[in-house]
Amino acid sequence: AQRVTxxxxxxSVFKGAPVELKCNYSYSGSPELFWYVQYSRQRLQLLLRHxxxxxxxxxxxxxxxxxxxxxxxxxxAQEEDSAMYYCALSKNFGNEKLTFGTGTRLTIIP
Amino acid sequence: xxxxxxxxxxxxxxxxxxxxxxxxxxxxxxxVSWYQQVLGQGPQFIFQYYEKEERxxxxxxxxxxxxxxxxxxxxxxxxxxxxxxxxxxLCASGALDRGGGADTQYFGPGTRLTVL
Lengths: 110, 116
Fold this sequence. Notes:
Radius of gyration of chain A: 13 Å
Oligomer: heterodimer
Order of helices and strands of chain A: EEEEEEEEEEE
Largest sheet of chain A: 6 strands, mixed
Strand content of chain A: 35-45%
């Protein structure tokens, strides 16, 4: 069975401070991991996926298969980063269903 | 392109009634997935359709059904509504990459269903 755990429901960080949103997963195969973000009054949208190895809006995430983690990081938080963040997993190869975590609400304090 | 569109935006029903939710995917996308998002939780997978065929089903009762039309739009039907069906229902479309690697899924704004 696939499972995604986001241990923090709420996270508050001062502007300019580093941000880390935690995500752990359980899956017996080789998963594909994603971070989705939902800004206020907007739809859920993809932030980044591990196979792209891109940095989007200053965020990065590294897949650690040993620790089964995919933590989202940003060195300097900005006010516009305040949003709901969801970690998600799908099976590799093909457009498979996404299994989401419960989400972390990130608030950046000015 | 307006992206994935869903209708209606909001819906209020009473227990025992039936509801139909609609989704139009991004032009060129042949895969449509449905998710239920209960308040305080992440989206939970209900169905996926590709080329009008069901490709996946989540852990939902038979009261939930869906179909995909030749133009790739989709409907989600829920019969005998329960209070617990109150949620945001999300539709997502994707291009379905068979070459390896899950394709990005693009989400619609959702339909907020309230069951009284």
